[in-house]
Amino acid sequence: xxxxxxxxxxxxxxxxxxxxxxxxxxxxxxxxxxxxxxxxxxxxxxxxxxxxxxxxxxxxxxxxxxxxxxxxxxxxxxxxxxxxxxxxxxxxxx
Length: 94
Fold this sequence. Notes:
With about 90 residues, the chain is an alpha+beta fold.
């Protein structure tokens, strides 16, 4: 919670501990791992909306979520943040 400023990394909503869920940015179903750089805090609705989409798939569909991810997911792996930047750029350019 501290590493994400107590906010959902996708919608930016302030989170109470009871509302927070842990999301694997790169989903386990797609080969992701239980490593700290792949784990972020999200609200339940955003976590369900993302489902098992890869980060770039999700951020192209929801560029605002990508912008929030870049702001609040401070401990996310550098490669995930690079991919998020590219996906948001592509989504906003279209």
